[in-house]
Amino acid sequence: MRARYGIPLKVTAGITAVGAVGLAYAAGFEARSFRLRRITVPVLPRGMRPLRVLQVSDIHMVSGQRKKRAWLQSLAALRPDFVVNTGDNLSDPEGVPEVLDALGPLLEYPGVYVFGSNDYYGPKLRNPARYLLEKAQGRHGLNGNAPAVGVVHNPWEQLRDGFDAAGWLDLTNTRDRLKLEGCEIAFTGLDDPHIKRDRYELVAGGPEKGADLSLAVVHAPYLRSLDAFTADGYPLILAGHTHGGQLCIPFYGALVTNCDLDTDRVKGLSTHTAEGSTSYLHVSAGCGTNRYTPVRFACPPEATLLTLTPKD
After folding, report:
1. CB-based contact 280:311 (threshold 8 Å)
2. Is residue 186 within 8 Å of residue 208, measured between CB atoms?
3. What are the beta bridge partners of residue 186?
4. SS3 24
5. Among residues 182, 255, 178, 262, which one has the least CA distance to residue 217?
């Protein structure tokens, strides 16, 4: 008769305890351990003064998140030249007033924004393992998946109206400009590729003549959008969406990006090359999470202060 070997009770208890501690850390500490990433990007014309750009992304506001609101409000003390919001502000249909309150001090500064899928639709409860399955199958968002059914519609119009009233520029599949002290910055933006709302044909043509700098802005860094921006000659692309992988393995990194971008560029500054041109790409890890998976591990929530400097 073959002997049966079970897992000792002490080992089982130990594994359970370690898992519980890890979950408590990921949900109770790291998800609220807000950080500021600081980077320098040499993209300005020679002789131009440096510009300080604050990028906020993936706030995923849920009613009652007081610490997140206070931290976002404190970012105004950085006194940026302008703010770039790369979407997914909401994770709760009731969250618009709290988003506008959290960003209130930053709305006093010039700014631009694009929306992400969670600004339009509320999140659904899903098994986190599906992200790994979709990565293996090459399916992300509505890109290869069936259209969303029975989703909650968020009041994104109220969010748009609040941003517009403060003077922030809506870059939804369009171009616009900010006039700052001593310079003029042109922007080209796309609606969210994750749900196939991007329409690059409406904004194609590359950087605008007469502007001191042209920047590209999109929520989800899908390769088709990065390729188009880069081939058109934009020096810097700003994106969010990935949450930096959200649940990462220490000393290894992210397992997924929730889009077709490789995990080596899941957050921070990198480059992208297409049709012989190269652009800088900055992907924000964001400062929130889906309300149904309020955890982060080895990937703290963040905003980024980018200092744009003249090219060497």
Report:
1. no
2. yes
3. 177, 214
4. helix
5. 178
Q: Is the pLDDT of residue 24 over 70?
A: no
Question: How many CB atoms neighbour CB 81 within 10 A?
Answer: 19
Name residues whose C-beta falls within 8 Å of residue 157's C-beta, 6 or more positions apart in sequence: none
Distances (CA, A) of 164 to 27, 125, 179: 34, 31, 16
List residues bridging with 268 in a β-sheet: 283
Let me know how long the chain is: 312
Three-state DSSP at 165 gives helix
What are the two backbone dihedrals, phi and then psi, of residue 47, each rounded to the nearest 5 degrees?
A: 90, -10
**Helices (H) then strands (E): counts for the chain:** 7, 12
Residue 119's nearest CA partner among 173, 160, 69, 168 is: 160
Helical H segments across the chain, by residue range = 9-28, 66-74, 96-102, 117-120, 129-137, 156-165, 223-231
pLDDT tens column, 290-303: 999 999 999 999 99
Structure tokens at 73: 């409000």
Count of Cβ atoms closer than 10 Å to residue 294 Cβ: 17
- C-alpha 41/C-alpha 43 separation (Å) is 6
pLDDT tens per residue across span 196-234: 999 999 999 999 999 999 999 999 999 999 999 999 999
Share of the chain above pLDDT 70, in %: 89
**Residue 69 DSSP code:** H
Q: What percent of the chain has pLDDT over 90?
A: 78
Kindly state the DSSP code that residue 198 receives in the 8-state scheme: -
